[in-house]
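Can you make up a polypeptide sequence alongside its tokenized fold?
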Amino acid sequence: MNAKITLFLSAALITTISCTNSKKNTHEKNQENEHHWSYSGETSPEHWIEIEKNSDCDGKHQSPINIIHKNADSVRIQEDLKIQYTPTTLISEVENNGHSIQFDFETGDSINYKNETYYLKQIHFHEPSEHKINGVIYPIEMHLVHVNKTGKITVLGLLGEEGDESQLFEFFESFLPIKEGAVKDIHQKIDLSSLFLEDKHYYSYEGSLTTPPCTENVNWIVFKEPIVLSVEEVLKLRNNMPINNYRNEQPLNERIVTYHF
């Protein structure tokens, strides 16, 4: 009899612990979901520093910024930036990470900035643009993220305006739609030299990632001349991303913006 009672109590205890752990795990998952950053509501950019406590999101050198052309230091284009894109670079995959559409690259294309080589890692999009020029917001902004061997980052920001169709964007969008959280293998060549970036004027400044952890000391290069894509291409990208997936303008805080012409 005592053995039966003991067995019953042991089973009840195990069930209680199991239920408690289950509730705890569910609670922890809910907390994680509640506190993950986003672009709207209680986890929008205004609250990132509250939910990303170990981030740089409240730093003094944050991005994006509003670039005021007349306030920028102007210099002749020298050899600071060398674009070394080729027609044979391979996109490895595309992902809808819940924040943007991101294309990841295999080792190949690179840029040389201030005598350092940065390798193209990924391209993603924001709609509308994060950077402004003279207060103008563009329909879309493309970020080409490059990383050197020590982990330092240089991002090329291309603003997009609506007009004729873009063959490059048609290629990107041939892999859409893609559901949130999904990843598609691609392993296809892409020719980014068609962007002709070496012929464009650009602004440069020291800033940060525009998403948490908002890491500072990122080299930003924002091209003055926008690329052109169709309204339909803008809409197709928008329909695969969160609405208004941009961070609000950040204070310049005595930083110098340089215009290279």
Residues 200 and 225 are 6 Å apart (CA to CA).
